[in-house]
Specification:
Radius of gyration: 41 Å
Number of helices: 11
Strand content: 15-25%
CATH topology of the largest domain: Ubiquitin-like (UB roll)
Helix content: 25-40%
CATH superfamily of the largest domain: membrane protein fhac
Order of helices and strands: HHHEEHEHEEEHHEEEHHEEHH
CATH architecture of the largest domain: Roll
Shape: elongated
Largest sheet: 3 strands, mixed
Structural class: alpha/beta
Strand order of the largest sheet: 2-5-4
CATH class of the largest domain: Alpha Beta
Length: 355
């Protein structure tokens, strides 16, 4: 019985893993199947198991020595210019990774719309390129609120420059941002390319300016010392009204709103509120994109007066008592931030006069 099981196991070693499990299970299930295996005679030689067939490993990456470098497809760009950017020279050993680096290096120059590299059996490295076109002219259509000169200054694409998709997308974003800052939030820009001969193109920016986006309301939260109307008078941005017919200051401009925040801070600090802060400034666009509602949350803080005012100097040529008389600040006066700046200017002028 032991000899039969050994024979069955040697027979199973030549099977696949799935069939091996099946053969072992059958040998343990009952003696009927095990008796079908031939018995091993005493003294009979045991056959050696065949050596396992070696499995093929991963293919080795092919490396070739470059004999010559051939540039094809260039029209206006000289071959020496292409070779100056190529990080491969004759005699170098290259493989797929080296060629990939070379392709990315040439692409980053933004001179080529497509780059392909290949090594022939004789060692010739073939560089196939497609040059990016030259810009013939840049045209703006549909602009009225912003002049063509202003748009031309903003974009990076220029006549006789090189056209790339990345640059035209960048310029679309710049034009849209320019309109957004001028109060036209819904403006859209569609770029179009007109193919010309000799690998040249005209770049056309079709602009839909959309309506001006006004300021429907300016509201303040947290103010008690001054009313909303008082604070609106401080700001440059104004609420849209029918009698103003959308003046330049009643459309929404994020940059102008930043200036308004600084004006509010100066307004409060010149009236004793040294701790004044703007906690938030939220701009909400109406569902129809017609106007913004601006809400500013402020923290006024306490109101202060000036305490003790004194001048200290280590310069023997300056008289502290005389300098103190030059200051526009007196003890007990209401705190004003502008007086601090005036005091600094007065002391600077006095020190300069004293050499």
């Amino acid at each position: 019985m032991i000899r039969q099981d050994a024979s069955a196991l040697r027979f199973a070693r030549g099977l696949s893993p799935s069939l091996l499990a099946l053969a072992v299970a059958a040998g343990l299930a009952g003696p009927a199947l095990a008796q079908t295996a031939p018995a091993i005679q005493p003294g009979a030689p045991i056959e050696a198991e065949p050596a396992p067939t070696p499995q093929p490993g991963p293919p080795q990456e092919e490396r070739l020595v470059v004999n010559r470098i051939l540039v094809r497809g260039n029209q206006r760009i000289d071959q020496t210019t292409v070779l100056s950017y190529l990080p491969i020279q004759p005699g170098d050993t290259v493989d797929a990774s080296v060629l990939d680096v070379a392709v990315r290096t040439l692409t980053r120059t933004q001179l080529f719309a497509d780059v392909q590299l290949g090594v022939q059996p004789n060692g010739d490295l073939v560089v196939e390129i497609v040059e990016n076109p030259i810009i013939n002219q840049v045209v703006f259509e549909g602009n009225g609120a912003i002049s063509e000169d202003k748009l031309t200054e903003e974009v990076t694409l220029k006549p006789r420059g090189i056209y790339t998709r990345a640059r035209i997308q960048e310029d679309v974003g710049k034009i849209v941002e320019l309109y957004r800052l001028s109060g036209r939030i819904s403006a859209t820009v569609t770029p179009k390319i007109v193919q010309l001969d000799q690998n040249r193109v005209d770049v056309v920016f079709e602009i839909d300016e959309g309506p001006e986006t006004g300021v429907r309301a300016i509201t303040f939260l947290g103010n008690s010392a001054f009313s909303d109307n008082d604070l609106r008078e401080v700001m440059v941005t104004t609420q849209s009204a029918w009698w103003r017919l959308f003046t330049t200051n009643d459309n929404y401009d994020p940059n102008r709103l930043d200036y308004d925040r600084e004006q509010l801070r100066k307004f409060y600090t010149n009236r004793g509120y040294y701790d004044f802060r703007i906690l938030s400034a939220i701009s909400e666009l109406a569902p129809d994109d017609s106007a913004f509602a601006i809400t500013m949350t402020v923290e006024e803080g306490d109101r202060y007066n000036f305490g003790t005012v004194d001048v200290v100097t280590e310069n023997d040529r300056l008289n502290p008592d005389f300098l103190k008389l030059l200051l526009p600040i007196r003890t007990g006066d209401l705190y004003e931030s502008d007086k601090i700046e005036s005091a600094v200017d007065a002391l600077t002028f006095a020190a300069g006069s004293a050499g």
